[in-house]
């Protein structure tokens, strides 16, 4: 150096980490948030002379350029053209203190910071170091600003959470380890951006767009699935996962992201919707975008975007695949919080993002961000993919019988089935919060009807008066009869399927069908019962039971039919999952047919987790897990797995060699917490004989 001889640079790690809320990152990098000043100290070898001029240069990306905001040149005590600035602070002799401020709309990513010294006509430049710049929900001028501190703690800093699954009438909690602060995870999140199709096509333009959370979140929604860009997770919805991991066996994002990164970006097999959502939540939180995981029960997948889901069955009650429309028991996506400069301030706030590869958007499997305000108001023409999300929570559900002579009978139309109990984890607790009102007005209200008609009009779909819709484009041949279909006749009987007791893996399932004659006419009801093992998408995997009964009903008589699904009937079909769809097609000579359906989810057997002592940072503590073989047969080859951010640096695996019929077993292992605060420990018993048995416990870890 001519004027400055620098011995070393102190990046004031403790001071900056505390101020920028980045102390939790397990990284040696300097991690900062935009729109907020950070401090650095230059320790000098010699006394500072006068007559020199200091200029800072911050740059990011492969081709830094001031015109694209990827390079900022700013003089001391002057704000640069890009909004960066530096001021000198009081200091001890032999050192110089500076505060450097990035603008609230700075590009996020990995930066180099250089100092240029000009003395006379001589210029010297030195690299002061590198830092990572993130979005800043604490900065009021940042697009991702979130005013409530408790919400920032939850949606940015909480590294574990709950993903809701199951059925609308049987909602289950599943623990998930987001682990956004674990070692390598921020590096992996930045690598995800650099591996994107946008970056490969034009690296400079891609980096220049990384100031915008709309852009960044949409890129991540495409990269978390592997369909177009060799992204992180490969989806599979079948019962064969032998070439990878059953999606039900994942308990967190860290293992998945590390496997992708360490495996040279080979997609990780396999994921389903909650896996994609969990991984995307990790990536977006690590980059500083407030994000949560949301579950929609009875979620419509409307392939032809006509706001109607058509289900076809044959005369035995078997589902026919005439259409690619479907209704999933639940679907999991994400919401991220930021403003929408592209749409206007009315659409600021929570934005839906969905990394599950269902439909292409602008040629790529990506979805969102779609403003929840746009969805609620029926503004289905707005970017991005608001029509797809609107259908997921608002479509009609129409059931048809298809007869052997190709005649179709519309037997049921339900305008309220889709989009129930839209759920997310509460701020600060593991309880469920219902956010359905963020997506739609109350079902059947005048406002809801008005919004629905508005959406139909914007989509180019017209109504036939009974909320039956027809696209202007030519429909599939399978639905060709639908425009002229008469409204369904009312059945002369009613029915309901119920469980005798909560069903448990390894035990028989006892059900009963209650039929009621709705008028004074004597009638004979032909009942065709069917039970199928299904995925959560309601796609059948295997037939379990099929039987027929003939029931005589007197005037307004009620009868109960009991039947049983034995363990031996379902055990080979439910090794990967625990879901059964039971249907009863009831036909009479008078009146319309009646279809009664019930989703059955087998409950987890007994599993408890006990922490045997106080949890303190850097002190070992024992954990005891007790579980029971639910089967009346010997099982072998089980594995107990445990993970939890701040508790275990890598997933723990313990072999459970043999379990006798109905035997309870106890496994004890040791954890050494390395972070304080409330921590989540997840435990998963994996066995080829039955589906996973999972549990979790929350620990309050004291500082060392």
TrEMBL record:
Cofactor(s) demanded: Ca(2+)
Chemical reaction(s) catalysed: L-glutaminyl-[protein] + L-lysyl-[protein] = [protein]-L-lysyl-N(6)-5-L-glutamyl-[protein] + NH4(+)
InterPro entries: Ig-like_fold (IPR013783), Ig_E-set (IPR014756), Papain-like_cys_pep_sf (IPR038765), Transglutaminase (IPR050779), Transglutaminase-like (IPR002931), Transglutaminase-like_sf (IPR036985), Transglutaminase_animal (IPR023608), Transglutaminase_AS (IPR013808)
Gene Ontology MF, one: metal ion binding
GO cellular component: cytoplasm
The UniProt record lists the keyword DNA-binding: no
Name this protein carries in UniProt: protein-glutamine gamma-glutamyltransferase
Species whose genome carries this gene: Eurypyga helias
């Amino acid at each position: 150096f001519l004027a400055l001889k620098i011995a070393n640079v102190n990046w004031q790690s403790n001071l900056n980490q505390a101020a920028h809320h980045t102390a939790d990152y397990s990284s040696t990098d300097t991690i900062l948030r935009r729109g907020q000043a950070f401090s650095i100290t230059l320790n000098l070898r010699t006394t500072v002379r006068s007559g020199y001029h200091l200029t800072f240069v911050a740059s990011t990306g492969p081709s830094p350029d001031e015109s694209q905001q990827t390079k900022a040149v700013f003089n001391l005590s002057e704000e640069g053209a890009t909004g960066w600035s530096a001021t000198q602070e009081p200091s001890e002799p032999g050192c110089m203190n500076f505060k450097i401020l990035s603008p609230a709309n700075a590009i996020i990513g990995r930066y180099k910071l250089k100092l240029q010294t000009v003395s006379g006509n001589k210029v010297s430049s030195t690299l002061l170091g590198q830092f990572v710049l993130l979005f800043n929900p604490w900065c009021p001028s940042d697009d991702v600003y979130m005013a409530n501190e408790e919400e920032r703690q939850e949606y940015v800093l909480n590294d574990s959470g709950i993903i809701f699954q199951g059925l609308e009438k049987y909602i289950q909690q599943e623990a998930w380890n987001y682990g956004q602060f674990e070692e390598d995870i921020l590096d992996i999140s930045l690598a995800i951006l650099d591996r994107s199709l946008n970056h490969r096509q034009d690296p400079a333009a891609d980096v220049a767009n990384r100031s915008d959370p709309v852009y960044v979140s949409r890129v991540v929604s495409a990269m978390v699935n592997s369909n177009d860009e060799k992204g992180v997770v490969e989806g599979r919805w079948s019962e064969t996962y032998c070439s990878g991991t059953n999606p039900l066996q994942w308990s967190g994002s860290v293992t998945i992201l590390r496997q992708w990164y360490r495996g040279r970006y080979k997609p990780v097999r396999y994921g389903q919707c909650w896996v994609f959502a969990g991984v995307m939540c990790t990536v977006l939180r690590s980059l500083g975008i407030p994000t949560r995981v949301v579950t929609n029960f009875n979620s419509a997948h409307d392939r032809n975007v006509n706001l109607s889901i058509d289900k076809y069955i044959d005369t035995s009650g078997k589902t026919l695949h005439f259409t690619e429309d479907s209704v999933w028991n639940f679907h999991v996506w994400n919401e991220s919080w930021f403003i929408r400069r592209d749409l206007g301030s009315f659409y600021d706030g929570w934005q839906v993002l969905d990394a599950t590869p269902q439909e292409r958007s602008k040629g790529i499997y990506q979805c969102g961000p779609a403003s929840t305000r746009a969805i609620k108001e029926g503004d289905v023409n707005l970017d991005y993919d608001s029509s797809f999300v609107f259908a997921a929570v608002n479509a009609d559900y129409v059931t048809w019988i298809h007869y052997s002579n190709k005649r179709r009978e519309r037997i049921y139309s339900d305008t309220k089935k889709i989009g129930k109990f839209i759920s997310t984890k509460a701020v600060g607790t593991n309880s469920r919060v219902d956010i359905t009102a963020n997506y739609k007005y109350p079902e059947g209200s005048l406002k809801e009807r008005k919004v629905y008609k508005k959406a139909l009009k914007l989509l180019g779909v017209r109504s036939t008066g009974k909320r039956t819709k027809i696209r202007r484009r030519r429909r599939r041949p399978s639905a060709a009869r639908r425009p002229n279909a008469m409204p369904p006749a009312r059945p002369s009987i009613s029915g309901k399927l119920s469980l005798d007791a909560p069903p448990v893996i390894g035990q028989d399932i006892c059900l009963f069908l209650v039929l009621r004659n709705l008028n004074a006419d004597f009638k004979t009801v032909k009942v065709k019962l069917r039970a199928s093992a299904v995925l959560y998408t309601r796609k059948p995997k295997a037939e379990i039971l099929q039987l027929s009964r003939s029931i005589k009903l007197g005037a307004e008589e009620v009868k109960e039919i009991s039947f049983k699904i034995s363990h031996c009937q379902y055990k080979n079909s439910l090794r990967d999952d625990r879901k059964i769809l039971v249907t009863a097609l009831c036909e009479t000579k008078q009146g319309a047919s009646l279809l009664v359906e019930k989703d059955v989810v087998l409950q987890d057997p007994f599993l408890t987790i006990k922490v045997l002592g106080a949890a303190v940072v850097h002190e070992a503590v024992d954990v005891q897990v007790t579980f029971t073989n639910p089967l009346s047969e010997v099982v072998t080859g089980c594995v107990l797995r445990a993970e939890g951010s701040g508790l275990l640096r890598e997933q723990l695996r313990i072999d459970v060699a043999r379990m006798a019929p109905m035997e309870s077993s106890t496994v004890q292992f040791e954890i050494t917490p390395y972070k304080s605060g409330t921590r989540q420990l997840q435990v998963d018993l994996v066995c080829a004989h039955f589906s996973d048995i999972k549990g979790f416990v929350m620990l309050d870890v004291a500082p060392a």
